[in-house]
Design a protein that fits this description.
597 residues; alpha+beta; Immunoglobulin-like; 4-stranded mixed β-sheet; 8 helices; 14% helix
Length: 597
């Protein structure tokens, strides 16, 4: 039992331990261990029996110590336009059990920040308070903030415990000036202008403001950042915007009648800062586009019927109301055949019907019909357009027939008949040519049948004087004939008369293999080089000497042909040709003495 603990056991209603002096403090001793002795016979140690037990007493902490800040004043600094940064650190002490609700601190700002630029977050490890910026501050609006903060615990103080004066402190936050970018007060800025304004027209002044101009004496310069159609320019110092091209509402760069351009404002700070602004120009439509006829091609029946009454036409205009429809469709006065053959009837404000006049017949073909189309602008614009109309015979449904489709391609009935006649004539010529070829072939075969059967020798060609099937010895080394490897078999021969048809014993000159001629211009050099090598070859024989060639074997077994001579035809008897058969009968009749049959 600790020395500062005295206790008494009260047996009434069970044994209870009560401290008799001092106050139990959890910060000093968090646990007590005591030994309890029980004796009967009213505690008579001489006669009574006794026993002991151990009791462990844990002291539970209560929030009896308020948190206290280590200083009455704190300070910090924050650059303007920054967020989520800690600008001051508040330290606190608390005697209660660490990391318990009685020890954990909670900070609040009770004055000095009406717009909520700051908050205080508790460090879970050190229990310090971190003053953090949650909304950007502006040096030009507030150069310093005087905050009053109070700290408390997560758990309420125990009964009878008062808050300390050291639970409240003042925090001074100084705002540091930085170079802020210029900004456009009206962004985006919208203006309205008619399209087609001339080049050099001043549209507006798009100026920016710099919060640092008074403190840092800065100058703003303007430039163009994005101008899709390159229609605008801006003055570098004043921000005045002037047109450099004609504004066109029908341009692909205009969306929903609005043209957008982006401009840049840059100051001369260190470092320089810049801001962007968007200018939106709403373009008011003017009547600057004439209408165009739609469609460009169509077809119509050569004779009107109850199902098909003509061609519906309309117009397309890039302008909008009131500079577009309703449209006016007219036929021109020249040439006169247009109004004589065609007519236009109004269907609605945007549509009309082009048709052939009643009882007017046009041959099938392609016709170009000029039509004058006018819009409703002030003043109106007109356009002379041409529609290509195919006039063709039609069926009951108003569709062109096959002949009509061909005629509508630009050929009249007479031209079609001429083409058909030419095709028939061409087919007749081809037929006559085939008949002539067949007749000629038949005449040739008939003429061959009139030839004497004895003169018509139809037999295979006999091949005489066959000299065999080539060389029998095919097993030899061709390289031995081209370049002998050694001359030992020739040198080792006994001395004697040398045959002129043997291979010479002196080796031929070996010339280096010349590479492929890179260019035709080197052919002359190649020939001269070969000639020079042949002239300087020491093994070459003189011009008047006997040339020795490779041995080619023994001579021919046939006799000399010098014994053959010619005799007169009178000395010859060709009657033996009659014995050779019908194939030689013609020859026997020519050279024999008999008469022809």
């Amino acid at each position: 039992m600790p020395d500062d603990f005295d206790g008494m056991l009260y047996p009434w209603g069970g044994c209870t331990v009560h401290p008799l002096r001092g106050v139990m403090s959890g910060q000093k001793v968090s646990q007590y261990t005591i030994i309890v002795q029980a004796t009967d016979m009213e505690g008579n140690l001489n006669f009574g029996l006794s026993n002991t037990a151990t009791a462990i007493i844990t002291v539970t902490d209560i929030n009896d110590n308020p948190p206290m800040l280590t200083s009455r004043t704190f300070s910090g600094e924050v650059p303007e336009n920054t967020v989520d940064v800690a600008v001051a650190n508040l330290t606190v002490i608390d005697a209660d059990q660490p990391h318990s609700p009685n020890w954990n601190a909670a900070y609040r700002i009770i004055s000095g920040d009406p717009t909520g630029h700051f908050t205080i977050r508790t460090d879970p490890i050190t229990n310090d308070g971190m003053v953090t910026v949650v909304k950007p501050v502006d040096f030009e609006m507030n150069r310093a903030f005087m905050l009053t903060v109070v700290v408390s615990n997560q758990a309420h103080l125990a009964n009878g415990i008062q808050s300390s004066l050291q639970s409240t402190a003042g925090v001074t936050i100084s705002v540091k000036d930085v170079n802020e970018p210029p900004y456009f007060p009206t962004n985006p800025k919208q203006i309205r202008f008619e399209e087609g304004v001339p080049t050099g027209t001043s549209l507006t002044t798009f100026s920016a403001s710099d919060p640092d101009r008074l403190q840092m004496q800065q100058i703003i310069r303007y430039s163009k950042m994005n101008d899709p159609a390159n229609w605008l320019s801006i003055n570098r110092t004043s921000g005045q915007i002037v047109t450099t091209g004609m504004l066109d509402r029908e341009s692909v760069y205009v969306k929903n009648n609005i043209y957008e351009a982006t401009f840049l404002a840059t100051d001369n700070g260190s470092p320089a800062a810049s801001g962007t602004g968007t200018l939106q120009i709403y373009l008011i439509d003017i009547n600057d586009n004439p209408p165009a006829l739609v469609p460009k091609e169509s077809q119509i029946c050569e004779r009107m019927n109850k199902n098909v009454n003509g061609v519906n036409i309309t117009a397309a205009d890039a302008d909008t109301d009131p500079n577009a429809g309703p449209f006016v469709f007219e036929l021109p006065n020249f040439p006169s055949s247009i109004r004589r053959n065609w007519t236009i009837a109004r269907i609605s404000g945007d549509y009309a019907r082009l048709a052939l006049r009643y009882q007017v017949y046009l041959e099938p073909g392609m016709y170009e019909v000029p039509i004058i189309v006018s819009d409703s602008g002030n003043p109106p614009l007109s356009n002379r357009s041409v529609i290509k109309v195919k006039v063709c015979p039609c069926d009951e449904n108003g569709d062109c027939t096959t002949l009509g489709a061909v005629a509508a391609a630009g050929l009249g009935t007479g031209a079609i008949i001429s083409i058909l006649i030419c095709i028939i004539i061409l087919l007749c010529m081809v037929l006559l040519f085939v008949v002539w070829i067949k007749r000629r072939e038949k005449e040739r075969q008939t003429k061959q049948l009139l030839i004497d059967p004895e003169d018509d020798v139809r037999d295979n060609i006999l091949k005489y004087d066959e000299e065999g099937g080539g060389e029998e010895d095919q097993d030899y080394d061709l390289s031995q004939l081209q370049q002998p490897d050694s001359l030992e078999h020739i040198i080792s021969k006994p001395p004697g008369v040398r045959r002129v048809d043997e291979r010479p014993i002196i080796p031929e000159s070996q010339y280096p293999i010349r590479p492929v001629v890179p260019h035709p211009g080197d052919i002359g050099d190649f020939i001269h080089e070969g000639l020079r090598a042949a002239d300087n070859d020491p093994t070459a024989p003189p011009y008047d000497s006997l040339l020795v060639f490779d041995y080619e074997g023994s001579g021919s077994t046939a006799g000399s042909v010098s014994s053959l001579n010619s005799t007169s035809t009178g000395d010859q008897d060709y009657d033996y040709l009659n014995d050779w058969g019908p194939r030689f009968k013609k020859l026997a009749d020519m050279y024999g003495g008999g008469d022809d049959d």
